[in-house]
Design a protein that fits this description.
This is Carbohydrate ABC transporter membrane protein 1, CUT1 family. The chain has 13 helices and two strands, in the order ααββααααααααααα. By secondary structure, the protein is mainly alpha-helical. 22% of the residues are buried. The N terminus is likely disordered.
Length: 318
């Protein structure tokens, strides 16, 4: 009887070779990633290589018509490093992106919490409004915003001028760098808030109602529930959204360009996107423009790495 049971157990035990199909099945997702990786390498790899090569050359308008470009090595980067205008633009761009990204996150978080607190009708109304604002084309939205802040017929000046003691008659918002970037920040935040609000709202829907009710029974008020329960649970969503906002706001271009077309094109109104455009398309110095582009890429990777490393540490701890 013991021998029969031993034979049955040996028969029921799977052979080691059965793990081979499992290894083959695990490789299928990796194979499916190959087309996407190839598309990214072709679509983004070639422009990146071209930018790197051009940043080491004296590439101007003559090279556009076939004249060979002279190799200058790191001279373009050295010129940029010693250019005070470049560092003013970098500082202005970093300040702009950090301020707008932080304000966008705060407003988006408040709207997401509002969507969880209001009734179904109010929530649908708010969501549709956010979708309409998000879906509006950038050029059309910018045209409306420029009309709103127009110094002669702008609604903003008209409403502010109605306040006693406030004189906003023909006030030019786009001729002063401070007010120019205030307007730009309002526009960028308005265009970015819907994405943040919907992303954070999706994270808030995953917070267990039972956990919140238990915390409330233990005496935790709304502020404590938000700080010690809700925020830690949606922290990964917030970090990813904040990272994306920093990257997008650092490379903002269309809004600043259209505001400059309606106001001033002086260097004090430039961010990195418009600065690169002026170097390339304006001054026809594509070598310097490529060098600034590579610098922006390195800056973006540095900002991204800080958040990616934090996410990796959280995954290891969990």
């Amino acid at each position: 009887m013991t021998r029969i049971l031993a034979d049955d157990v040996a028969t029921a035990t799977p052979a080691p070779r059965a793990s081979a199909p499992a290894r083959r099945r695990l490789s299928v997702p990796h194979l499916l990633l190959i087309p996407a990786i190839l598309i990214l390498l072709v679509g983004m790899g070639y422009p990146l290589v071209w930018q790197i090569i051009t940043s080491t050359q004296d590439f101007g308008i003559q090279q556009q018509f076939g004249k060979p470009a002279d190799f200058v090595g790191l001279q373009n980067y050295i010129t940029l490093a010693t250019d005070p205008t470049m560092w003013q633009v970098v500082g202005r761009s970093l300040l702009f992106c950090f301020v707008t990204a932080a304000l966008t996150l705060v407003v988006g978080l408040l709207l997401a919490m509002l969507m969880t607190a209001v009734g179904r009708t109010a929530r649908l109304t708010l969501q549709i409004s956010l979708l309409l604002a998000w879906a509006m084309p950038v050029v059309a939205a910018m045209t409306v915003w420029i009309w709103l802040f127009d110094r002669r017929r702008g609604v903003v000046n008209y409403l502010l001028d109605m306040i006693p003691g406030v004189d906003m008659n023909r006030f030019s918002w786009l001729s002063n760098p401070l007010t120019f970037f205030i307007v730009a920040s309002i526009i960028v935040i308005w265009m970015s808030v819907p994405f943040v609000a919907f992303s954070v709202y999706a994270g808030l829907t995953q917070v267990s109602d039972e956990v919140l009710e238990a915390a409330q029974l233990d005496g935790a008020n709304g502020a404590k529930r938000l700080r010690y329960i809700i925020m830690p649970m949606i922290r990964p969503v917030i970090m990813i959204v904040l990272l994306l906002q920093l990257i997008w706001d650092l490379r903002v271009f269309t809004q600043i360009t259209m505001l400059q077309d309606a106001g001033s094109k002086a260097s004090e109104f430039d961010l990195l996107g418009t600065y690169i455009y002026k170097l390339g398309a304006g001054a026809q110095d594509f070598g310097m423009a490529s060098a600034v582009s590579i610098f922006v890429l390195a800056l973006t990777l540095a900002i991204s790495w800080f958040y990616v490393r934090s996410l990796l540490k959280e995954d290891e701890q969990s």
